Amino acid sequence: MNSPLSATRAHALSRLEAFVPRMGRHYAQGRNHDHGPAARPDVSGLSPWIRRRLVLEQEVVAAALSAHGPDAAGKFIEEVFWRGYFKGWLEQRPAVWTRYREGLTRDLLALDGDRALRRRVEAAEAGRTGLACFDAWVQELQDTGHLHNHTRMWFASIWIFTLRLPWRLGADLFLRHLLDGDPASNTLGWRWVAGLHTRGKPYVAQAGNIARCTGQRHTPSESELAATVTPLDGEEPDGWPAAVALRAPRPPAYGLPTLLLVTEEDGRPEDFDLAALDLRAVCALQASALRSPRPVSGAVADFEARALEDMVARVLGHRRALRAGAGRGRSEDSTPAYPASRPSTREAADPEDFVRWVAALGVRQIATGYVPQGPLRQWLDAAERGLQAHGIALREWRRDWDAAVWPHAGAGFFKVRQRIPRLLRDLGLAT
Q1: Which of 197, 355, 359, 428 is in Cβ range 3.0-4.6 Å of 192 for a Cys bridge?
Q2: From CA 278, how far away is CA 276, in angstroms rounded?
């Protein structure tokens, strides 16, 4: 990556403030145009921070409403709700994530036995296809850890229908390199392009659309792109798996010795009632490597590591402020140290090793922000079985945004979109 981004909440808030003036008509009119990494004034670029909740969905929506009102900011607000829709949809159909990971394993094994396919995949991943726009996007992805949202759609369509490569390998390429790589948005976005999400309706990359929306920066010919596009819904003749009830997390209990587990799934743990917990330790869990069986970009791992450092620093700063307030009029020694041990950083490697480490702390519960479907959820599910054997509970806080949006995400996005005005009122963001 050319220059590392600051993976802090302070930096996210600064970027948010700078983009607020363009959240209205500028965003609505310019959001689909990609004139290059240095020429995208009408998209926020906030996704790496929103993905980790270093800045919250409510915060960016509130800023848009305050500056532009619900009508002018409607398109921007709708795009924020897409993120919640994808997460809620996958929460209700966790089998889709399982299918993706199992299919990816099969696709990777197929590369071992099919030399021609392996060469084609390697050429695509290296940006050596001969299709100039696609090769440029591969380079940008690897150099910056980012692609414009419209460009991601073109890229996925070309990967699937022009290059005729397994869609899961393309989704895996994104998840390994995108700083904002999110299991729900990435998996379901690729499924949507392939015609698996909105079944039978794939997204088709068109030469004229690419030329127009890139300001003629890329001008592929029609003959370079697939002339015939067949959706991949035949891969799943049974369609979507049946929806299941949303998992109801149990919040942490008061009075139990507690480990606070900080992950990139929720970058503002200080929002929760930490003062009411008997916190004995804080652990930052690095989980980027879980994104793929293949090596994950160093830039992704580095961004996660620096984001976790910022999260832990804010948790400790929050506690120091609480101690200062509680200690007025009495000696500092009268307020217990917090946490009882120094913050730890651990990689999400062997769940059994993690369980043994937690058991040695003597805690009775782990408190963490809600972890949705994806690789970290799978890893925690495996760890939880061992934790239960030691009498240690895994407890999660779920945010009001998720509790409000996710129940409406069981089918297409339309059901969420038509409820946006009411959801904004329920969340206290509009009257």
Answers
A1: 197
A2: 7
Q: Is residue 345 part of a domain?
A: yes
Please check whether residue 247 lies inside any domain of the structure. Answer: no
Domain check: are 412 and 346 in the same one? no
Cα–Cα distance for residue pair 250/332, rounded to 1 Å: 34
Tell me which residue range forms the domain holding 13. 9-90+405-426
Which residue reads 């008997």 in tokens? Answer: 278
- Looking at the fold, whether 81 and 110 belong to one and the same domain comes out as no
Give the DSSP per-residue string, 312-339: HHHHHHHHHHHHHHHTTTS-GGGSPPSS
CATH of the domain at 86: 1.25.40
Q: What distance in Å separates the CA atoms of residue 74 and residue 45, rounded to the nearest whole number?
A: 18
Taking only the tens of pLDDT, the chain with its 431 residues reads 444 689 999 999 999 999 999 999 999 999 999 999 999 999 999 999 999 999 999 999 999 999 999 999 999 999 999 999 999 999 999 999 999 999 999 999 999 999 999 999 999 999 999 999 999 999 999 999 999 999 999 999 999 999 999 999 999 999 999 999 999 999 999 999 999 999 999 999 999 999 999 999 999 999 999 988 999 998 888 889 999 999 999 999 999 999 999 999 999 999 999 999 999 999 999 999 999 999 999 999 999 999 999 999 999 988 777 666 665 544 444 444 567 678 999 999 999 999 999 999 999 999 999 999 999 999 999 999 999 999 999 999 999 999 999 999 999 999 999 999 999 999 999 98
Domain of 194, CATH number, reads 1.10.579.10
Q: How many domains does the chain have?
A: 3
Q: What is the CATH number for 271?
A: 3.40.50.620
Residues 66 and 136 in one domain: no
CA dihedral 101, 155, 223, 115 (to 10 degrees): -40
Cα–Cα distances in angstroms (integers) from residue 17 to residues 83, 196, 243, in the given order: 21, 37, 39
Phi, psi of 279 (to 5 degrees): -80, 125
Residues in the chain: 431
Task: State the Cα–Cα distance between residues 160 and 107, nearest whole angstrom.
Answer: 14
